[in-house]
Amino acid sequence: MSTERVQDKTGEQINDEDYVYTRYRGGTHQGRVDKVVTDEAGAHEEDVANPPKSDHAPIPKKMYPIASLPGKLRACGSGWLSATGSWLLPAYGIADQWVRGESSQHMRPRSFERRLGRLCTHRASVNVHNMRWPTLVACFIYGAFFSPALLCASPLHSGSSVSNPGHDLISVLSSAAEDPMVDGRVSDTVSEIQSRIAADESSQETRGDRVQLAFQKIEAIFTNRTNSTLLDFVHDMVASGLLPSKLLSFLNGYLDNTINSGLNKNPGLDGERIYPSRAAKDAPYSMPEEALRQAIHISSFSPSGRKGRKPVILVPGTAAPAGTSFYFNFGKLGSAIPEADVVWVNIPGASLGDVQINAEYIAYAINYLSALYQTKVTVIAWSQGGLNTQWAFKYWPSTREVVEDFVAVSPDFRGTMVSTLACPWLAGTLCTPALWQQGWDTKFVHTLRGLGGDSAYVPTTTVYSSFDEVVQPMSGEQASAILQDSHGVGVSNNHLQTICAHQPAGGIYTHEGILYNPLAWALTIDALTHAGPGDPSRLDIRKVCERSLPPQLSLDDMLGTEGLLLVSMSEVLRYTPKTFAEPDIIGYASRALGGEGRGIRRGRDLSM
């Protein structure tokens, strides 16, 4: 049967996206046509025009050759595929289907792993709680053993990313599009990126009308959907033309950019011992000192010129290398504070591995840079970077003595209720360690917040937005960004939409958008130039709030920062191995918490 002859009862052609009422074997369905398919069973045309999503899963546009999967499995020593399929397959009633391919030829996916992959791919678009138990179990098995993203995967040292034959973002996404476990729209996104890069566009001028147009597009992308995923945002961002070609070209080459290197050559320390510990109460490192030091990116350093310099450590968030994360925003802090030496930490695996290990890189960087510069340092952290830094403060108490200020932008100190947003496998049942750990009140979050960890250890400034698409909640008393002040060091928790209510700086700023928010910049500069945390009362708040961008940044910086979502999508896709749960709490932390973990102290709420 040809798809071209699929018609309704009146003889009208049925096409993709038509809204139809459909009868199928076993029931009825009303809704928009996802994909016109045909079925070898010989059903009536109207019966197959809009098949129920639970029975017909679309094949992604690009797939592994069917013959390649058994070969991969044989290479891994997995010889039980056919036996497993014989008893798993009937559980979810998958009939062999004829599905129209890109070449308009019909191909029949005969292999068990392909059909199971198709089912699981499509089921991932609906809530996992609606899956029948046999289906969910089968999808777990597919994800653990058959998915091309995981075949022959072995744990990589310190959660490093998978090596790919291509060294650009397009290659990573194109490779991921071949995995039946990954949403097929990845392929569409690749095509959009390629066409946008090919376009010849001039530089974006920072005129008010252009900035407002960009904000309108951002509002449309991030507020017009419900239950969106990272892929939804990335696809819409590229398709809307929000990102000009030169920015896409820059982001496309992020993997080879030296600003993201984790193999930096940094000077030794003269006489000061910070490894294996700087103080007796510091937790032990599990990573070798060479790896910890190489992750620190210092643009330039001269022992003779360090007097009067202010080292500022930038700590990245989840799924984005530090160099690219801050290239369009706080990497330019020196234009506002000339004495600042901005450095950053390129955590292996783009911070997608165990947050407890990620925190080791921050603890070491703090003590190393303070010893190198012979002065206190400032830490500016974005997203998970706030957790990394707070964990370092808690379990490496020597770091507290050498930090002058801590600025946390979009932090998730309580985790987030939308932690699976970035996991396009099995509706979030398969994810990366760090994303699991950042769920709402997970074991990791519970451990961090216990015994005073919900309060600041150094003067701390937090800045957050209600429109954060990654961390929620981000308003009210339960906002994940809030830290208490039971240690009495000084904290200011700054909610954009409260301080700049109904003004441009209090508008729709996303998780990454706060990196270019004028209030976030003003508070950061205030914290670095005064004792204690950033204080809105010291600012010309009317002037700050009426701006959409800080004076140090341009429209290109704003758009480049939003483009970080593409890099995050790439890093999440290429990270391996995926896991089904968060890692265990590391020994030193579980021993410290002991039986007292249930008694979490709550300091006073200083949110604004």
Automatic annotation (TrEMBL):
Keywords, sorted A to Z: Hydrolase
Region (Disordered): 39-59
UniProt keyword Hydrolase present: yes
InterPro entries listed in its UniProt record: AB_hydrolase_fold (IPR029058), Stereospecific_Lipase (IPR053228)
Top-rank lineage group of the source organism: Eukaryota
One Gene Ontology molecular-function label: hydrolase activity
Basic and acidic residues bias (residue ranges): 39-58
Keyword Transmembrane helix included in the entry's annotation: no
PANTHER family (alphabetical): LIPASE B
Protein name per its UniProtKB record: Alpha/beta-hydrolase
Organism whose genome encodes this protein: Aspergillus ibericus CBS 121593
